[in-house]
Write a structure and sequence with these properties.
By secondary structure, the chain is of the alpha/beta class. About 40% of the residues lie in helices and about 15% in strands. The protein is globular. The structure holds nicotinamide-adenine-dinucleotide (NAD). The site of nicotinamide-adenine-dinucleotide has 27 residues, from helix 4.
């Protein structure tokens, strides 16, 4: 097939039909699937050979992309997963969706750097590169653009286009998906913004252009910092309310009836996933590095949220104590390991931290979570089903992730101590 090259033509753009997505994870795979649906020829590049082999065999590991959808995409002949960067040749658009973790509390942009090295040799006149990975403001223009220019010998904003568009997907959300969530778009100049907008106008219902990549990068960090800080607020309140003998959950529900000026957030065992424990620290790191100042809200929120697992363990210890038992030697059944309900993502999950803390105190641990791939579960955790027998055998049952598939009547009727960190068992057992 001949790949159609695009040019800016009198203020409009001819869309390019070959799209490459670098990184086929939770973000990249749904984008690739949507692009196939929208008529693009899509190459999904990933360095993980097992993941690519599974994708080629039609096996998806992302809950929001059923394997049937992947198989349909493969059957069109317009989707291919690959580990070979040479398959990027003649791309019109490339979207980068690789990880942006912290390494020793410092942003680790090595995956973006490696992606730039993979892409640069294949950049041609008129093509467009878009970064979607979450990162601190300035990354697109100060890190990505120089790498693409030096690797290609071409000029960004003149010979090829570059932009940033933050990903907003919410894994497991049945209402808002990639297509119906407005997409913030940006470019390093007017021509780049035009090309980036043209791409996403074909993929999503609504695009929201902003002035430059830095505003788009900050938008994402603002959204996640907002959630992180508000979750920390209700977490701290939950601890005080418990000691005061007040039901914080009821207060939050009542406050949520106010039709303006309030947005409900709920307490929990801590924050997890690839976003909240990491993204706000990208911003505070940049503020400290560039301005020499502390982003106090982020630091306070980190402190409160990071200590929630300790608080959960303390509550379990008190609950067992009230039944004349100690953590040491008690069997504790952890219900849910993923950081978020109805997903199998255990990255940074507070449940794992809680499990470590309980194990360190000599508890015997069992865990229930059929979403999580068993090889990712630490060896000291025994995976079991949630049954009347497993609940009855436990001295304590702790609900950490309230997956919808679980039968909570079993937990409600468990004979031992029950702590419900998600308030799933409304009023029937002890909430956080
Ligand atoms: N998961 C979410 O809910 C979510 C939401 C919004 C934004 N984000 C952001 O999107 C980015 C990606 O997150 P994710 O959850 O999809 O991560 P992920 O780990 O699920 O997927 C990333 C993929 O990139 C691959 N990869 C790494 N280096 C590569 C390289 N040089 N070339 C090709 N592939 C490479 C990995 O093998 C992996 O499969 C991160 O910056 C994250 O913060 C994630």
């Amino acid at each position: 097939m001949e790949w159609q090259q695009s040019r800016l033509l009198g203020g409009s753009c001819v869309i390019q039909e070959k799209l490459a997505v670098v990184g086929q994870g939770y973000v990249g795979l749904p984008i690739a699937m949507r692009a196939v649906e929208a008529g693009f020829d899509v190459v999904g590049l990933d360095v993980d050979e097992t993941r690519v082999a599974n994708l080629q065999a039609g096996v998806s590991f992302v809950e929001d992309v059923p394997s049937e959808q992947l198989q349909e995409a493969l059957a069109t002949g317009r989707y291919r997963a690959t580990t070979d960067a040479a398959d990027l040749a003649h791309f019109g658009y490339t979207i980068i969706t690789v990880p942006t973790p912290l390494k020793d509390t410092v942003p680790d942009l090595s995956f973006i750097e490696e992606s730039a090295a993979e892409i640069a040799p294949y950049i041609e006149d008129g093509c467009t590169v878009v970064l979607e990975s979450t990162t601190y403001p300035g990354t697109t223009e100060q890190l990505l653009v120089p790498l693409l220019e030096s690797g290609s010998g071409l000029r960004a904003g003149v010979d090829f286009h570059v932009g940033y568009s933050p990903e907003r997907i919410d894994p497991g959300n049945k209402t808002f998906n990639f297509q119906n969530t407005p997409k913030v778009v940006s470019g390093i100049n007017a021509g780049s913004l035009k090309m980036v907008s043209c791409l996403y106008d074909r993929l999503v219902d609504r695009t929201v252009p902003v002035t430059s990549p830095a505003e788009a990068e900050l938008t994402k960090l603002l959204e996640n910092t907002f959630r992180h800080v508000n979750i920390a607020l209700v977490n701290e309140l939950a601890v005080f309310a418990h000691d005061l003998g007040i039901d914080v959950w009821e207060a939050i529900s009542a406050a949520a009836t106010k039709p303006f000026g309030f947005m409900p957030f709920t307490p929990g065992p801590g924050v997890g996933g690839h976003c909240l424990p990491i993204d706000p620290s990208y911003l505070s790191w940049q503020v400290r590095r560039s301005l020499g100042r502390n982003f106090r809200f982020v630091e306070l929120a980190n402190d409160v949220n990071d200590h929630m697992p300790d608080y959960v363990v303390q509550r379990v210890a008190s609950g067992l104590n009230s039944q004349g038992k100690s953590l040491k030697g008690s069997t504790i059944l952890l219900v849910g390991l993923a950081y978020k309900k109805n997903t199998g993502d255990i990255r940074e999950s507070p449940a794992l931290r809680i499990a470590e803390l309980l194990a360190a105190q000599g508890a015997e641990l069992q865990a229930v979570d059929s979403y999580v791939e068993s090889h990712k579960v630490p060896a000291f955790l025994t995976l079991v089903e949630l049954t009347e027998q497993s609940a009855a055998a436990a001295d304590a049952v702790v609900v950490l992730t309230d997956h919808d598939y679980l039968d909570y009547t079993i937990v409600e009727n468990a004979p031992g101590y029950v702590l419900d960190t998600r308030r799933r068992l409304v009023g029937l057992r002890e909430p956080l």
